Each structure stands twice: as structure tokens, then as C-alpha cells.
Amino acid sequence: MAPVFHYGTDSLTIPATLSIAAGMQKGILNAESIRRIQTSQSYVAQIVAANKTVYGVNTGFGILANTAISPEDTATLQYKILQSHSVGVGDPIPAELAKIMMITKVQALAQGYSGVQLSTLERIIWHIDHDIIPVVPEKGSVGASGDLAPLAHLFLPLIGLGECYDQGIRKPSLQILNKYGLSPVSLGPKEGLALINGTQFILSFAVKAVQRMQNCLEAADIIGAMSLEALTGTKAPFDERLHALRPYTGNKLVAQRLRLLLQDSAIMQSHMDCGRVQDPYSLRCMPQVHGASRNAWQHLKELTETELNAVTDNPIILGEDDTISGGNFHGQPLALPLDYACFAASEVGNISDRRCYLLLEGKWGLPMLLMKDVGLNSGFMIPQYTTAALVTENKTLCFPSSADSIPTSLGQEDHVSMGSISGRKLNKVLDNLEFILAIELLSACQAIEFRRPLKSSALLEFAHDHVRKYVGFAAEDRIFAEDINQVAGLIKDFSFVQQLNAFAASQGVRLNEGFEEF
In terms of domains, do 210 and 106 share one? Predict the structure, then answer.
């Protein structure tokens, strides 16, 4: 049984976040976090009682910061902020992402700097534990004063508004509360502002991107090694001594993985003296290209885990007479690495498409288009059209959203991060990358069979055989979309990489040994 996670006092990691979201781990408030929450909330109560002017407690928001709010209207103010800021449009984000938003919001608020009521946090945790997930539109955040619109939608159900998924069915929130015998929460001073200030929308996309991109990077090394085998390429460019001379961590890791994946290959041994001097870059430079993308992924991972444990509210409540109105809600620290990771993921697809193309050329003993009877059959020509289309689509998604800024709130919020768009775009690129890698994997499996009776390494033969459980060799044309979707499913659900890693471990091989934190 997974250990219990203590919101606000334990350090939240990406694996823990995903584990709580999957229902495999339970998050709770312990005595220390409860003490912090109640102390912070008492400071806000004292501020209101003393009629001290503090932004968002007894003032308006944004450009209305200088508008005073009477003590009797402070609760109404918090109710109205959730209503007025619920302006999101577009399709709902996946329920898993909305759940991650709630988990990360609880982690931020439970640290005791936001002045929220314990009962409010307990209600959010109830939503998490019972998988009652709010409906959150995907568009509308500029990623600066926090993810205002998506967070407002996320917390409308607290006050009986908006919609939630209950057992996967979309229903009005009030109907769900009635079903479970619950009443809407009565928000106290500052609570509405605390709920919508923060980067949890950007952060949820970053968490999923880190998980998905790591899987794609692991898959790309395996699939690239299979393509190299099919094309009778050399492993010389992966020599450890070469990469010690340019010691980027990502490059060294990829080179090590390729050496281990190709170890003891009969195919490799069969052409040691073939006279071919160099392989094309898409084979020879996998450590440099895949490795550079690994470096970008690692940067995103590090900053995401910092953000998971950050307080991104405004103002910060340190005491009755000690509040700070700042800009911890600004999404720039994540917007930049999300854009960088977007380029990095796109490049993995770019080089994968080039290997797909090499497999079709009919060189080095392979039949043209990876089929013996072409003319009547088109072979694997058209799947590469799909990789070409997806690669170009990814390139169009690489414009850095963080390079743009449009002033909001009548100029009070005059620089915004657009990090919400950065996070969404990265995950779209990863959608396409999973299909690109699937097509290369299909092509490499097809090509390797033309090297029989020679065998590749034990690890790559396992990978080949695993794919063949789902998709067979193509002696003639068929509806390749069905094959692509089948193999893409093995990448999307992480099983291709997980099964290969498990087999490698059973053989005493640890592909990432020495680089476990990378």
C-alpha cells in the first residue's frame, strides 16, 4: 500500500501527484498543516475585524484594487470573483488534469499562507477522494494573475455552480452535492481570490508533459536502435569515449542506452567489415539529438517539481500585520521551459521521420518501401506521409507562446506569460509524437524481418516480438491506420517502454544505470 501523503508539509513530486490523481495514494491534512491553515485564516479574520486595507480581502481585484469593500460585503466579494472569472471557452480539459489542478492547489494552500478555511480545503479533498471532478474549459488563461479562468471554473462547484464529472458523467454541481447530502461552501474573506490565484492549470499540463515526454524519449531510443539495426548501421558513434569529450548528461545517457540496446546483436556483428564509412545523421547523431531533448526534459522536470511545492497566491498572509502583495502567480518560470520542451519534443519527431524515410529507400539490402511486391502494393510509403504531416504540424506549434504578451486588467496586469498556451501546445506536440514514433516502430519491425535469419540483441528482439503480439508482418497492403493506432496505443499507455524495461531488468540490464535521476 502506498504511503499517505501529507498536504502542505510533505514535498510533492511528479510521481506522487500522478499517484494521488490515479487513486493509488491518499492525500490528507495532518495536525501541522491544519494548525498552519487555521493560523493563517485567523490572521485574515483579524484583518477584517480591524478594518485594515489588504488587497483582495476588503478591496476589489486587479484594476479595482483601490476600491474598498465594506466588511458586510467581503464574503459576497469572494462568491462573485468565482462567478465573474468563469469565462473559459473551448473543450473541457481531461478529468485527470482537472484533478491534478485540485491536488496541486491543496498543496499550495495547505502551507498556510493564504488565509483559507479548513472546511474549504476539506471539501476540495473530498472532490479528489471521491473522483468528483469539475469541468474546466481549456481556453481563457493568460497565465499571469494565476490561471484565473480555469481555476474559477475548477472551484465553482464549491459554491454549488458549474459542472462536475460523477463516475464519468457530466452533471450540474448542485445536483451532485444534493446526491451526496452536501451543501455549498460559504466562502470567507480572501478565499475566492486564493482559489483562483495560482499556476495550477499550467502546472497540471507540465506534470503530464513530464510524464509523457519521458516515455517518448525512452521509446525513441529503443525504436531508433531498431531502425539502426534494420539499416545495418554501426554503433561506433555511441562509444563512451566519444561522449566523454562532450559530456552533456543527456547525450551520455542516450549513448549508454543505445550501447546496451545493441549489445550482442548478431545483425550488428554480421556487417562489421562492410566498408560503409558513416551513417546518416538520423542514425549517427541520436545521442546528440535525443540527448539534447533529454536535457530540455530534465530542465522542465526540475522546475515543475519546484512549482509543485510553491505558494503562488497573492497576497501572501504572514501575520495580522504582515501581508505581501507580489507576483508569485506569474507563470513565466514554467512558460519558458514548457516552450523549450515543446521544441525538444518536436525534434524527436523530426529525426524519427527521417529514419522512417531511410527505411523506405531500398538501400543496404532492404526492399524499396519495405515490401517485396511493390507497384501493385504501395508498401510503407504512405505511413511516412503521415509522419511528414505530423512533423510539420508540430513545427507550426513551436512558436513560443511565452514570447507574446497582451496587457489585461486595463494595464494593471501589463505583462502576462501565456504559459497556459505553452502547456497545452506541448501536450499537442506529444500527441503527434506518439503517432510518429508508432509509425517508425511499425516500419522498423517490418524492416528487421528482412534481416532474418539473423537476430538483433535480446532486448530489441523482445521489443520486436512484443509489437508482433498486436500487429503482424505486412506481405501486402492493408489498412495501415489500424496498425498505427494499435501500436500508438502501446506507446500512449506506456506499456511498450515498461515491458522492455522489465525484460531488461530480468536480464540484469539497467539501461539508465548511473542516470536514475535523469
Answer: no
Residue with cell 494552500: 109
Count of other CB atoms within 10 angstroms of residue 326: 10
Burial class (CB in 10 A: 0-12, 13-18, 19+), 195: buried
Q: Band the pLDDT of 411: cuts 50, 70, 90.
A: confident
Checking DSSP bridges between strand 169-172 and strand 163-166, what pairing results, if any? antiparallel
- The verdict on residue 363 lying in a domain is yes
pLDDT in tens, 243-261: 999 999 999 999 999 999 9
Query: Cell numbers at residue 40, please?
Result: 493563517
Residue 340 annotated to the active site: no
User: 154 with 241, same domain?
Assistant: no
Q: Which domain holds residue 11?
A: 5-198
> Which residues, at least 6 apart from 483, have a Cβ–Cβ distance to it below 8 Å?
442, 471, 474
- Strand spans (E) along 107-192: 132-134, 137-139, 163-166, 169-172
Residue in the block written with cell 452535492? 177
d(CA 238, CA 235): 6
pLDDT in tens, 29-83: 999 999 999 999 999 999 888 888 777 777 766 666 677 777 777 778 888 999 9
How many folded domains does the chain comprise?
2
- Please tell me which residue in 55, 79, 165, 340 is annotated as part of the active site: 55
Supply 489's cell numbers: 496505443
